[in-house]
Amino acid sequence: MSEFHNWDDIRAELDDGERDALAAERPGTEAWVSAFHLAEERSRLGLTEPQRAHLMGPRRAGSAGSRTATETKSGRGGAS
């Protein structure tokens, strides 16, 4: 039989009290997850990056969205 862990116990063990740092990191993490899901969906549909871009329409140059999902997924492209 496997042993289950209470999520509250795990969270308490991992929490270092840096709430401001966690709040600052959250938007970047959420953007990375969204880009990862976009890249996975693009791959599942068999679309190239230009095909995906055409379907999604124009985007603003220089914005955080200017990196491709593949670049974000791989950790390449753009400054952090």
Q: What fraction of the residues are assigned to beta strands by DSSP?
A: under 5%
Number of DSSP strand runs: 0
C-alpha Rg (nearest Å): 17 Å
Mean pLDDT comes to: 78
Number of self-contained structural domains:
1
Tell me the span between the first and last alpha carbons: 43 Å
Note the run of SSEs as H and E: HHHH
Structural class: mainly alpha
List segments where confidence is low: pLDDT < 50 over at least 5 consecutive residues: none
**Shape designation:** elongated
Total helical elements: 4
Percent helix among the residues?
A: 55-70%
Largest sheet: none
Describe this structure in words.
There is one protein chain. With 80 residues, this protein is an all-alpha fold. It has one domain. The chain has four helices and no strands. The longest helix is centred in the middle third of the chain and has 27 residues, at 19-45. The radius of gyration is 17 Å and the shape is elongated. The model has no long low-confidence stretch (mean pLDDT 78).
List the helices and strands and how they pair.
Blueprint: H1 7-14, H2 19-45, H3 49-56, H4 69-74
What's this model, at a glance?
With about 80 residues, the chain is mostly helical. It has four helices and no strands.
Features:
80 residues; mainly alpha; 4 helices; 0% strand
